[in-house]
C-alpha cells in the first residue's frame, strides 16, 4: 500500500470552550514522513489539540494547514481524504463486520452509495493483510477485543490513504507485544504521523520529535533526549526518574525512581 506523506502546520493554535482554554498558542511544523509524539499528563490538552488537526475542534485562534491548505477553509470531504484518525473512544455497537469497518475508509473518495471499485477492493485487501486481520474479517466489530478493534481502526485509516495520520493513544488496550508491533508498523509506512502517547519510552523509541504539553501549553519540543529531561519529568509529570540509554535501541529510557 503506497501513501504519499503530507506536511502539517499548526500556527499559534488555541482552543477554548467558554472561558476555559484547553489549548493555548501552540505552533508546530511537521515535515512529510515525520512522526511526532504528543506527551503530557492527563488533561494536558493532547486530545484537544489532535481534534483541531482532524477538523473536530475549530481553533479559537490560529490555523491548521495540511499540504499548505487551511483545513477549515476546505470541505469536510477534503479533510476526510487527507487526514486519517484513530481515536480513543470509537463506538463499537454498530452491526458491521471488520471488513465493513475497514471499507468505510474509502467513503470519502466516493459518491454516496457508489460501489467499491477494483482499486478500493485492492486497498481494503492490502490493509486486512497488513494488520493481520484476515481471520477476523467476517467477525462483528462489536465482538472484538480492544486490541483487535484498534488494529481494525488503523486499517480503516490506512485505506483512506491520508496525507497525515492522527493517533490518539493508539496503544490503549494493547499488550506490550502488540504495542511494539503497531508502532513499528506505523513507523514503517513512512507517512506523516502525530500520535498522543502515554508511554514515554515508546514515544522516545518511535518518534522523530516529541512535543510536551501541560495545561494546554507547549512546554518543550525537539528530539526525545532534549524533551525527556529530569527537570521536565519532575516539573510536568511530578516524578523523579533516572535517564539512561536503552542498550538495544540507543534511545533515551525513563526509569522512574
From TrEMBL:
The UniProt keywords, alphabetically, are: ATP-binding, Nucleotide-binding, Transport
Report the residue ranges that make up the ABC transporter domain in this protein.
Answer: 8-240
Record keywords: Protein biosynthesis included? no
Q: Matching SMART domains, A to Z? A: AAA
InterPro entries for the chain? AAA+_ATPase, ABC_transporter-like_ATP-bd, P-loop_NTPase
A molecular function (GO) term: ATP hydrolysis activity
Which family does this protein fall into?
Belongs to the ABC transporter superfamily.
PANTHER family according to UniProt: ABC TRANSPORTER ATP-BINDING PROTEIN, HEMIN IMPORT ATP-BINDING PROTEIN HMUV
User: Under what name is this protein listed?
Assistant: ABC transporter ATP-binding protein
Organism encoding this protein: Paradevosia shaoguanensis
Amino acid at each position: 500500500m503506497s501513501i504519499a506523506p503530507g506536511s502539517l502546520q499548526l500556527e499559534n493554535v488555541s482552543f477554548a470552550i467558554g472561558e476555559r482554554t484547553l489549548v493555548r498558542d501552540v505552533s508546530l511544523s511537521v515535515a512529510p514522513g515525520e512522526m511526532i509524539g504528543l506527551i503530557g499528563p492527563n488533561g494536558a490538552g493532547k486530545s484537544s489539540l489532535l481534534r483541531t488537526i482532524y477538523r473536530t475542534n475549530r481553533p479559537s485562534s490560529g490555523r491548521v494547514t495540511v499540504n499548505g491548505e487551511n483545513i477549515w477553509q476546505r470541505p469536510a470531504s477534503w479533510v476526510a481524504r487527507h487526514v486519517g484518525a484513530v481515536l480513543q473512544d470509537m463506538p463499537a455497537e454498530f452491526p458491521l463486520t471488520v471488513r465493513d469497518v475497514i471499507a468505510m475508509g474509502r467513503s470519502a473518495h466516493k459518491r454516496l452509495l457508489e460501489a467499491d471499485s477494483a482499486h478500493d477492493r485492492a486497498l481494503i485487501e492490502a490493509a486486512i493483510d497488513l494488520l493481520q486481520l484476515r481471520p477476523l474479517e467476517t467477525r462483528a466489530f462489536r465482538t472484538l477485543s480492544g486490541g483487535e478493534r484498534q488494529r481494525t481502526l488503523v486499517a480503516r485509516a490506512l485505506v483512506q490513504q491520508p496525507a497525515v495520520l492522527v493517533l490518539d493513544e493508539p496503544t490503549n488496550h494493547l499488550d506490550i507485544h502488540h504495542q511494539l508491533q503497531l508502532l513499528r508498523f506505523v513507523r514503517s509506512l513512512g507517512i506523516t504521523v502525530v500520535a498522543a502517547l502515554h508511554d514515554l519510552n515508546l514515544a522516545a523509541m518511535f518518534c522523530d520529535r516529541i512535543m510536551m504539553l501541560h495545561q494546554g501549553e507547549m512546554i518543550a519540543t525537539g528530539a526525545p533526549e532534549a524533551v525527556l529531561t529530569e527537570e521536565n519529568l519532575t516539573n510536568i509529570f511530578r516524578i523523579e526518574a533516572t535517564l539512561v540509554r536503552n542498550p538495544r535501541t540507543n534511545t533515551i529510557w525513563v526509569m522512574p525512581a
